[in-house]
Amino acid sequence: MISAGESSGTLDQALDRLAIQQEKEADLNSKIRGAMIYPLVVVVVMTVVVGFMVVKVLPQVEVMYQGMKNAKLPFITQMLLGLSHFIIDFGGLLY
């Protein structure tokens, strides 16, 4: 663009266009970064909440179900309790 502006005698206009284009690109990049922060925060908060529930809440639910005689837990609940036990017992290895 610069060489074209030099040869045509409109270097100032070419540089103005180049500056405007770079400002637009910088603005777009800033908007994209801003738009990506919210989903990242949501995912982090969701992970923390699910982790808390798996480590703290599910073991208490298991104790409640153990007190009930002849109570058969649904398969999904058994899987979640197994995941909870795994994370509690081997969670340190994940880091």
Structure, explained:
This protein is mainly α and 95 residues long. The protein has one domain. Helices cover 87% and strands 0% of the residues. The chain has three helices and no strands. The radius of gyration is 29 Å and the shape is rod-shaped.
Helix content: over 70%
How many angstroms does the end-to-end distance come to?
51 Å
Beta strand count:
0
Strand/helix succession: HHH
**Whole-number total of structural domains:** 1
User: What about the largest sheet?
Assistant: none
What's the SSE blueprint?
Blueprint: H1 2-8, H2 11-66, H3 75-94
Helix pairs in contact: 1-2, 2-3
Features:
single chain; 95 residues; mainly alpha; 3 helices; rod-shaped
Summarize it.
This protein has one domain. It has three helices and no strands.
